[in-house]
């Protein structure tokens, strides 16, 4: 059974409360439950982790890579635009990876248009709300 990591970065624990006009009203807990349930349907084991701390996210990527996970869904939050270290951890992990954003980062403030992560992942889903997690998992479950 494929193991897929579901990694959410800073402030995503505030979903449902934080700027619902941009990020929607669903909570991270609901998104994780939906993704785990779909994983079961697709024959994948989804392991979710969220942190507001860059080093914790990096440590989790390393752990999943060392445990032989086959894929990673990551919503890096604000680290999308700032973290070379997170980019390097993903790149070095060897994990097939999809970057997900609830909002369309390309239609927002100029500083959000540049992702340091996008250039090293297999795919990016942005602007489709929580459906982006589903599409990412469906892609990673293939093979």
**Uncertain segments:** none
Q: Would you tell me which CATH topology applies?
A: Rossmann fold
Overall geometry comes to globular
The sequence of SSEs as H and E is EHHEHEHEEH
Q: What's the number of helices? A: 5
Residue-averaged pLDDT, rounded?
94
The biggest sheet, with number of strands, parallel, antiparallel or mixed sense and barrel status, is: 5 strands, parallel
- CATH architectural name: 3-Layer(aba) Sandwich
Helix fraction by DSSP (H/I, runs of at least 4): 25-40%
What percentage of amino acids are in beta strands? 15-25%
Ends apart, CA distance between termini: 12 Å
Q: What key attributes describe this structure?
A:
143 residues; alpha/beta; Rossmann fold; five-stranded parallel beta sheet; 5 strands
Description:
This protein is an alpha/beta fold and 143 residues long. It has a single domain (2-26, 42-141), classed as Rossmann fold (3-Layer(aba) Sandwich). 37% of the residues lie in helices and 20% in strands. The chain has a five-stranded parallel sheet, with helices on both faces. α2 packs parallel to α5 (131-141) and α3 (54-66) packs parallel to α4 (84-93). The model has no long low-confidence stretch (mean pLDDT 94).
């Amino acid at each position: 059974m494929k193991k897929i990591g579901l990694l959410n970065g800073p402030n995503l624990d505030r979903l449902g409360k934080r700027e619902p006009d941009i990020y929607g009203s669903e909570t991270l807990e609901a998104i994780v439950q939906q993704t785990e349930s779909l994983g079961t349907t697709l024959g994948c084991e989804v392991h979710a982790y969220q942190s507001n701390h860059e080093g914790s996210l990096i440590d989790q990527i390393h752990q999943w890579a060392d445990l032989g996970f086959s894929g990673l869904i990551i919503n890096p939050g604000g680290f999308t635009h700032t973290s070379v270290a997170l980019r390097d951890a993903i790149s070095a992990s060897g994990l097939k990876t999809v970057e997900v954003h609830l909002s369309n980062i390309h239609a927002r403030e100029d500083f959000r248009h540049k992702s340091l992560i996008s250039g090293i992942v297999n795919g990016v889903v942005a602007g489709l709300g929580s459906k982006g997690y589903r599409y990412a998992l469906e892609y990673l479950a293939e093979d």
